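Sample intake sheet
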Amino acid sequence: MPPQRRWTFLVVPHGSDSPRVFSLSEKVVKRLAMVAGAIGLVAAMGIGVALSHVALRLRHTDDRSLLGSVTQMQARLDSLDDTLRAISRRDQQIRLLAGLSADSLAQHTDSNGPTLAIGGVTEMTVGSSSDIDGMIKRANSLAASFAEVTGTLAHNSERMARIPSIMPTAGWLSSNFSLSRFHPILHYARPHEGIDVSAPMGAPIVAPAGGIVRLITWETGYGNVLEIDHGDGIVTKYAHCSKIVVRVGQKVKRGQIIANVGSTGLSTGPHVHYEIHVNGKVVDPLTYVLPDGAIPD
């Protein structure tokens, strides 16, 4: 049997210590090598498991972050959908106030809003892209509807500004509109095509609505007369004025002073005779005066 090979190891320490010599048999060396290999394998496996745990934690962290982002996005979409529904309902109310027909957009205000779905831990898909497209379409329709309502309200506002809704002077009603009234001076019955508002001499007469002065003249029985064209076939007339402070063609606003109370023409005392003509026909001026339209004394 051949003699065993032996391995000699020389260990040289740092400093001035003497080297050390070790002699080991080949069998012992092989056993030591096997042990070292096993230790290395176990260490490698441990490192691999640790790295796997780290990767899994990072993945779970990313998933939680993604889930949080999706939840926030869903909350924002729900809020936007609620806002659009509220605006849609208010839009219908405004359209009715403006005298416009209800918009077809109202038919879609009760539809379910857009949703986001998560197919897996890290998979995110939009539940229905048509829902988001629908929200965009609803927003555009609302914008168009508001533009229409704005134009209509502006037109109605201008029209309302031309309606004679206040009394022409502060005073007391001394004679009503009547199809037949006994005239206090002529002493026979005839139509009284307006109302008489008695007031102190020189009291201001104001325009009951916006318009353009179309006539200033002297008329038998009415004395100094002023007429204002308010558009839409509405004309107002003021008689017995002591003084007229506007000119023909001048544009006036509601509440602007246009003349002064007088007693010109056939008159028993200072007052203003006030008429409203609609498309050439006289109407009772009091039907146009709003409850708070009377000028206080």
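Comment: Residues 104-127 have pLDDT under 50 and may be disordered. The helical segments are 26-97, 129-161.
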